[in-house]
Amino acid sequence: MRKHFGKLVVGILALSMTAALLTGCSSKKKDSSKWVIGTNAEFPPFEYISKADGVIDNYAGIDMELIKLIAEDNDKTVTINNMEFDSLIISLNNKQVDACIAGMTVTDERKEEVDFSTPYYVATQVMIVNEGSDIEKATDMKDKTIAVVQGYTGETVVKELGYEYEAFKKGTEAIEELKNKKCDVVVIDSATAAAYLNENKGLAIVEDKDAFSSEEYAIAVKKGDKETLDAINKSIEKFKEDGTIDKLAEKYAEAGSTAE
Ligand code: GLN
């Protein structure tokens, strides 16, 4: 009986190993030639979906081209894992992705959870209003209906000003709200605001350098993942110095597409 039991155990083991091989469970072991990159492709001109101009599959934008170049520079291939902005940091910590590039601003709060690369872009928050709006500075938003995107630094900035606001899941939703006059102002990152203006008539950008300080975008990696961070930083330095990043920013400033 004991013997049989032993055989049974060996049999089950062998079976499950075969099953693991067949279903690819054993591929849980990390493929070091591949990076899985988290993004939120709702943030033109940095990342958006475009069947026509996709750089990695259907994903286009400054960040998508940049991460592709960084990966190539490190002999890696990339696949994109598109998710909600709020899930990006979680997905790094769950090891679902190797790095996140998503126009992500370096903040002290986020630094507690992830490590950031050398910054590659400087932005600021701006206000998007309908043409003819009387909003000229941040404090003019006091009694207005404000829209932000959930989890973006724009939300933090409005919160810090102490104003009420409504948070939307996507920038495009906030912009629709503005166009339909259901809100008076959208607070969002500068280059993204410019991209929305390229696509939508009747809107204007209002800046307030006193109220909104500059923000730096960087690539996030799992805390302590020095190997990935060093690899990314080495390439960012190179692409900053040789003008590649400036060229990408110029190229997409014109495009600013939100096209599907
Ligand atoms: N820069 C903003 C932030 O980090 C928005 C980024 C984004 O929506 N992709 O919160």
Q: What is the compact description of this entry?
A:
The chain has 260 residues and is of the alpha/beta class.
Characterise this structure.
- 38% of the residues lie in helices and 22% in strands.
- With 260 residues, it is of the alpha/beta class.
- The strands form 3 sheets. Strands 8, 9, 10, 11, 12 and 13 form a 6-stranded mixed β-sheet that branches. A 5-stranded mixed β-sheet has the order 5-1-6-14-7.
- β2 (42-43) and β3 (47-49) form a beta hairpin.
- α2 (62-73) crosses α8 (226-241).
- It is globular, with a radius of gyration of 22 Å.
- The model is unreliable at 256-260 (pLDDT under 50).
- Bound molecules: glutamine (GLN).
- Glutamine (GLN) binds next to loops.
- Glutamine (GLN) is lined by residues 40, 43, 85, 102-105, 152-153, 189.
SSE arrangement:
Blueprint: H1 2-23, E1 34-39, E2 42-43, E3 47-49, E4 59-60, H2 62-73, E5 77-82, H3 88-93, E6 99-100, H4 108-111, E7 114-116, E8 121-130, E9 146-149, H5 153-161, E10 166-168, H6 171-179, E11 185-189, H7 190-199, E12 203-206, E13 214-217, E14 220-222, H8 226-241, H9 244-255
Parallel strand pairs: 1-5, 1-6, 9-10, 9-11
Antiparallel strand pairs: 2-3, 3-4, 6-14, 7-14, 8-11, 8-12, 8-13
